[in-house]
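Two records follow; treat each independently.
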Amino acid sequence: MKVNKLIRTILTALCVLCALGASAKAKGVADITMKDGITFKNVEMILPKGWDSKIKFKDASEKEVKLESNDVEHIVLWHKDAPEHKALIKYMFTAKYNPKTNEIDTVPREKEKWWFTLESAGDHLSYWICFNEIKPSKKGITYIIRDCPHHFVKPEMPDRAFMIVTNSLKPGTIRNWLKGFLADDPVLTEALNDKGYYNKKKSLRQGNLYNPYFFEEMAVDYNPKK
């Protein structure tokens, strides 16, 4: 729970936009927190592509420093002229949940590890979007989003992002996945039975990313201890 509370604190300062047109060569300013507790503050970062297993930044002497993505806990990123617009990104394994068998697959596979950006977080669940490219600007943070970008992370498995099954032609498929994965919160899953957390008219609230489900609200409301 402490991890998610930290994420929620950071999230209050974030303002993120999902859109097309990011450039991998662009640079941004970042605070990099390592898993061993070491931090690099206000460094000029060479932005990672979604699959990069290494990241680069320049230190105070303008020397380029390389880090293993696996060693990074998280990164807070912004444009030097717009510090009010920040993104929290993290390198995580993707994992799968099968609602038919109620089984999860958390076997770590290096080829299935990606960079994610945080959209919202509660005490028991956080919602992340997987991206290919990211670019900070004066207007906000823009992304090129991967296929099937939506993921949930639970605090007991902080380095596993569970891909939310999506099918715009069969919304019931998504609902069944959600009801299974979030089954230990019957209040929330009962709301899903009534098409709660769903609004087609607001499906483009995340820029060009079509999403009629309010995964961001589910992450905040989800509480298995109700």
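The next record belongs to a different protein.
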Amino acid sequence: MIARTCNLVKYEDEVINWYENVPKVTSSALEEGTKSCYDRDIDKERLDELLGQLNILLKEYPDALREDNILNKYKTLVDYVKSRKVALNNCYSYSNKERLDNSSWGTKGCTYGIRILPNNWNNGYKCITITGYNNTASGVIIGKKELKLKLNRGNLSYINMSYVDSLESEFYSSEVLSYLEPKILTKHL
């Protein structure tokens, strides 16, 4: 995990067309008992993977969620966005690259970004966004997953999670994410 402002626009440019052209599966499939498009093991694996990135961040930067650090990183992020004329949604304060040798989906690597927005951004709570772009050995993006968490008075809770590739888009509500019971639990903040 590197504490460096970056943008992942080139990755997002590769997946942006997928949103319009693929069928969408929402978390209601689970809530209605329709299991045909729902695979609990894969969905849990994705959630655990993204929460694992948060744990790496907190291990390497234990003060990353302190108010003053969040505000400093946010200011740097806003300055970066303005100077490069890119969207805030494509920029992150922390990044990480991992090689995935044993992935079941043919993925060879993943590039992650973590962005933490302060209280004044989202109705009085901090919003933590963890995004991962899966890629092949040649660097072609084959999937994007994103988890949004709410940090309110030292407590983390889910907002939502999404996954998109060239064949499907899946969206998960906070209730479904809680149901998945991730095995990776973040430490109390």
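Discussion point: The radius of gyration is 16 Å. How would you locate this feature using only the token line?
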